[in-house]
Design goal:
Chain A is built from three helices and two strands. Chain A has about 80 residues and is mostly helical. Classes of the chains: A mainly alpha (about 80), B alpha+beta (about 150).
């Protein structure tokens, strides 16, 4: 889970490693993920989102598809 | 920090671990957590295993060293975050923004572009980061993140 300055640099990084580029996330989307995951982390009742909740969170941010599905076996 | 008698032991351990980390910028050792919760290191170790099962901690193989208490990292990484003058390490780009989100405080993220190695600075306010064209990329699909969280 890394930062990149541009999509071209992501492609170059993936080419160098012979891996498939994955969906790209903007900073505003990343902030929403950070808030959803961590805004209650220092509180007693905090917990990690359950898989079905994760799917819904990702979809609400426009992050859909098998890559974002925590229950898929597409990447076995 | 005073202990709340209504909390379960595991919750007290989690709050102690995170509380010390938030105060110091470093994930504490087993003994420091045990001291804060007023129990034995062995009992804290058992709680760690249960918190790991809930995917709240990532432990080293010894079961007592906390490598990750997300969003905080127990080891130095390329993702540094400064909040109220305290330096933290984040596990990844996501967690770099997560530290301000967890602490509910503005912060400054310092990281880099992994391809060009250009330095990256991002001011994060209470309502989110300043506008930025930088991007986030994750190689590992969501279903496999916890197979090897260090690699992810």
């Amino acid at each position: 889970m890394l930062f990149f300055r541009s999509e071209e640099l992501i492609d170059a990084w993936c080419r160098t490693r012979g891996v498939t580029p994955r969906p790209i996330v903007r900073m505003d989307q990343l902030w929403q993920l950070a808030v959803t995951w961590y805004s209650t982390r220092l509180e007693a009742e905090s917990r990690r989102p359950a898989p079905n909740e994760m799917r819904s969170i990702f979809e609400d941010l426009g992050l859909a598809g098998d890559f974002w599905d925590p229950t898929t076996d597409m990447f076995g | 920090m005073s202990l709340d008698p209504t909390h379960t032991f595991d919750t007290s351990v989690k709050l102690a671990l995170y509380g010390i980390t938030a105060e110091s910028g470093r994930i504490p050792g087993l003994n420091a957590v045990a001291e804060r919760v007023g129990d034995t290191p062995a009992a804290v170790k058992e709680a760690y295993a249960r918190l790991r099962a809930q995917r709240l901690l990532w432990l080293e193989a010894n079961g007592v060293t906390v490598r990750m208490a997300p969003p905080f990292s127990g080891v130095p990484t390329q993702h540094q975050v400064t909040v109220d003058g305290i330096e933290y390490y984040a596990n990844c780009a996501w967690d770099a923004l997560g530290i301000s989100a967890a602490l509910h405080r503005p912060g400054l993220v310092r990281s880099r572009c992994e391809q060009s190695l250009a330095p990256f600075e991002l001011h994060v306010g209470l309502e989110g980061p300043e506008p930025s064209s930088w991007l986030f990329h994750c190689l590992v699909p969501a279903a496999r993140w916890w197979d090897d969280l260090v690699f992810t």
